Amino acid sequence: MQNNLKTISVPFALDFDEMNRWLLDSLDLVASLGDISHSGRKQQRGPLPPVQEIKPVLRKLLDFQVMAFFKINEEDLDFTLIDCDPIGERTLIEEELEYHVEKGTFAWALYQNRPVVIASDVLGKRTLFHVMATKKRILGMFMGILDYDDPFIPDAIQKLVSIALLNCASLIENSILYDELNTYTNELEEANNTLKQEILERKLLENELVQAQKLEAIGQLAAGIAHEINNPAQFIGDNIRFLQDSLPKILILIEKYRHMVKAAKEGAIPPELGLEVSDYEREMDINYFLKEIPITITQSLEGINRISKIVSAMKVFSHPGGEEKIHTDINKTIESTITVARNVWKYVADVVTDFDQYLPLILCYPGEFNQVILNIIVNAADAIADTLDNGSGTKGTITVSTQQKDDWVEIQIKDTGSGIPETAKTKIFDPFFTTKEVGKGVGQGLAISHNIIVEKHGGMLTFETAMNKGTSFIIKLPINPETQSTA
Is residue 63 part of a domain? Predict the structure, then answer.
């Protein structure tokens, strides 16, 4: 960068007009500090660039043999030499500094807030000290060894030196503030990145927790599901064995019928052949087969359909889902979960469904929504089981209904169980809180369900309860999540 500062002379003996011109030149010189500071800010940060820019200004004001700039720690007043001009005079500056530190003049000059000219016994010359400070802090000290012995320095020169060094201090402080701002910004960015990472890890942990609970639920339901599949599979097997045993007799009868058809084509059916067929029909009890075989086939088809329904429900329920929501048939999803959980509720309750067949598809995570329905149904079955008299044969009722209310789809799961105690109402969605006995519940089901519905779907999960009458859990999901979130 080129230095465009004017050269001015020190007015120790000037007439009025010359003094006036000198003052104008000096003011122009100081005004140019703004251009220097502006260009300095564009180049680099730290205390050294402002010092480098201000040195030519000081040399125009006074004839310094050596100039030195010290950085001062305001807390302990420890100082460090950051610039010496010319650099070869560093030893001279150190000797002069040691002298003034021992005399105490360095510390005294630090609090004068004006140029202080002090004679030195070391060099036999005079040294000018000027603190570099702002209203907020002491930043450093300027030390200049003058190249002449005249103790007189006009007030105008002293004020210009003060202005120059205060300007330099302001630049240094701005640089420090800029560095502090950069540091703070970097710390904020680092904290923000850390927070993002923690949020990501939390989401991953939540997903793992949901999947772990789903696997746990599937493990607990596995025996019941196997039983549900085994029952139809068993009677399908029995029916197939019945058909297998019946087939040889039916084939023999068919063969006898074919002989009769052949005889008829030849002109006449021998009486003995007709009697043989009639006797065999009576022997094998053809009426029994005519009645039982259609029933057997119908039962087998029903069993296959039942197994297919369970397998399909398991496939829907256990599907891990993706990272994005998909449009889902809520009724079908709930029905699959009820089927999967059948072995949990069938001994203690009847499940009644009342689905709104005109529900729109809902944008959701179907796998996680399944988990919520399962958690609530399992809790409902447990609550009903606690109220039943073992061996009485009576059952409770779990009613599952869906309906559209304005811009929401509402799912209600109502049981005729024991209800939720007053002391537990405020804690029901807290992690690890459970009203079940030790070993039967870990208190994660409803906490995870609440997180899935509220946090991930922007919905609501509430409940209504009455002791010894039952509990209703109400799930509300937005039909248009984007509209709901901006409303």
Answer: yes
